[in-house]
Amino acid sequence: MEKKDICERTFNYAVAIVKFCRAIDNGRNVERLLSRQLFRSGTSIGANVEEAQAGQSKADFISKMSIARKEARETRYWLSLCNSLNIGIPRDVDVLLKEINELIAILTTIIKKTKGN
């Protein structure tokens, strides 16, 4: 996967997360709190991937990509919680979970390959 692809994919994922958060935030406490947590972690993935592109060193690049992966795992947690609590349209949650699992796998591969070089 090219750098541009992961940047574009994580950006598009952030857009999808923002739309999902808007849809689930109905003003009730649980939904509002989950929405905020999910918004924060889900949009942070792409921001860290973008930052990694300007890393000052290989170690800096790996660090930023590792943070992106950590945020992706947190996002998966919040989505799984939404799924278990029947928050959001199940099909939407499933699509977001599928994509986050793929992003975690891609980020893991990028980190491993970079460490190996």
UniProtKB/TrEMBL annotation:
<dbReference type="InterPro" id="IPR036583">
    <property type="entry name" value="23S_rRNA_IVS_sf"/>
</dbReference>
<dbReference type="Pfam" id="PF05635">
    <property type="entry name" value="23S_rRNA_IVP"/>
</dbReference>
<protein>
    <submittedName>
        <fullName>Four helix bundle protein</fullName>
    </submittedName>
</protein>
<dbReference type="InterPro" id="IPR012657">
    <property type="entry name" value="23S_rRNA-intervening_sequence"/>
</dbReference>
